[in-house]
Amino acid sequence: MALLKQMLKSIREKNPNEPEFHQAVKEVHESILPVLKSHKDYVEARLFERICEPERVISFRVCWTDDQGKVQVNRGYRVQMNSALGPYKGGLRFHPSVNQSILKFLAFEQVFKNALTGLPLGAGKGGADFDPKGKSDGEVMRFCQAWMMEAYRHIGQFTDVPAGDIGVGEREIGYLFGAYKKIRNEFQGVLTGKGQDWGGSVLRPEATGYGLVHFAHFMLTEVDATLENKTCLVSGAGNVSQIAIEKLLQEGAKVVGFSDSSGFIHDPEGMTEDKLRFLKKIKSGQRKSISVFADNYKSAEFTPKGKKTIWSIPADCAFPCATQNELDENDAKTLQQNGLTLLAEGANMPCTPKAIDYLQASKVLYGPGKASNAGGVAVSGLEMTQNRMGRYWSKQDLEKELRTIMKAIHEKCLETIATHGLADLDYLNAANIGAFEKVAKAMNAQGTI
Ligand code: GLU
């Protein structure tokens, strides 16, 4: 036992100044302690320490010229975390907060998430401390080309396949793909999230949001409930939240709150398809603040960013889809006291550890992001398959496939709960243990590398 505790301490010491990475590692460590106790071979093979040590971390200079002709310098990264199950796979984040700790936590989460999809996917994450906000298309293009000028030598369809994350959508993937093709003179599936006419999957834009709502649906089925007429909160204003709202409407749920970095909207009358179209226009088209929504709809009230958060709105279900640590213990308490039944994570690690402890203890159904937001990377995996086959699949086929994958992840969680004697509907420990066992087994089989 002492040895197992020591493990966490030495990982912390070896990776100083990486609080987000420590947080992600600690959560998994806590979940898998009982597995390690009964698996001496895993402990002897140092499997947990190996999983926490990226196979490779690449950090590089990215120089580009802005519209004023001034030289700008950013730092680019690719963390190649684990290739036990397949090529490194995971998104790119372009955001001023990006640093090694954030990318290592994301890459670490990706190891488990990708394992849960059941597809042959290893794990990685990358990006840069570049802020796309307020940049012209030309500036974003030159930045993407400069990023790829270094990254191309480290990635490839059988090596490492990046995709999008915060700040990286179809526009950025296009510029990155074009740069890779130009440098290598090869049209290959080196990135996912591509445009639909040049190798992309027709369902990739919807995949994370749809998958999230499917997962919530399966969770609710376990308590004989459905999403119909449930009041819902969805934070964040990016692709994941917009699509989650879309799917929730299709399921008959009532979305009464949503947010962006400027504040949140409370609309007791709920979202409609018309309102959602307007939201998509102001957020994705015009890149404006969500406050514009309240100017347009009388029933909606805007609260600027401050002490009060979106989680103060009473609701049955909450879907944090913005970013890491956006929901703390106080938020969790408020939500639960206001009658919350379910929380499923669309973002990566959006709940603080104390918020998760509170939710688990108070018997709110909690869907950890590794399981609930795995639909995005799953459809990325399907995009890779399509690229290798050199063909396209229809939207209907992909929708069916995505639902099947989310169902399988849910069933895998239930199976792990049963085989490991976990508490009823303990998705957190089930996702961590189920994924760890799969990766650990593969690593063990592949020897000490
Ligand atoms: N960034 C997404 C995630 O967190 C998608 C990764 C991918 O499609 O490779 O899973």
Summarize the model shown.
This protein has helices spanning 2-14, 19-37, 40-44, 47-52, 100-116, 137-151, 170-184, 204-221, 239-250, 273-285, 291-296, 329-337, 353-361, 369-372, 375-389, 395-419, 427-445, and strands spanning 56-65, 71-82, 88-94, 123-128, 160-164, 231-234, 254-260, 263-266, 301-304, 317-319, 342-344, 365-367. With 449 residues, it is α/β, with parallel strands linked by helices.
What can you see in these coordinates?
The protein has three domains: 40 residues, no CATH class; 134 residues, Rossmann fold; 166 residues, NAD(P)-binding Rossmann-like Domain (Rossmann fold, 3-Layer(aba) Sandwich). 51% of the residues are buried. The two termini are 26 Å apart. A hairpin with a 2-residue loop joins strand 7 and strand 8. The strands form two sheets. A seven-stranded mixed sheet has the order 9-8-7-6-10-11-12, sandwiched between helices. Strands 1-2-4-3-5 form a five-stranded mixed sheet, with helices on both faces. The protein is globular. The chain has 449 residues and is of the alpha/beta class. The structure holds glutamic acid (GLU).
Write the layout of secondary structure elements.
Layout: H1 2-14, H2 19-37, H3 40-44, H4 47-52, E1 56-65, E2 71-82, E3 88-94, H5 100-116, E4 123-128, H6 137-151, E5 160-164, H7 170-184, H8 204-221, E6 231-234, H9 239-250, E7 254-260, E8 263-266, H10 273-285, H11 291-296, E9 301-304, E10 317-319, H12 329-337, E11 342-344, H13 353-361, E12 365-367, H14 369-372, H15 375-389, H16 395-419, H17 427-445
Parallel strand pairs: 3-4, 3-5, 6-7, 6-10, 10-11, 11-12
Antiparallel strand pairs: 1-2, 2-4, 7-8, 8-9
The structure holds glutamic acid.
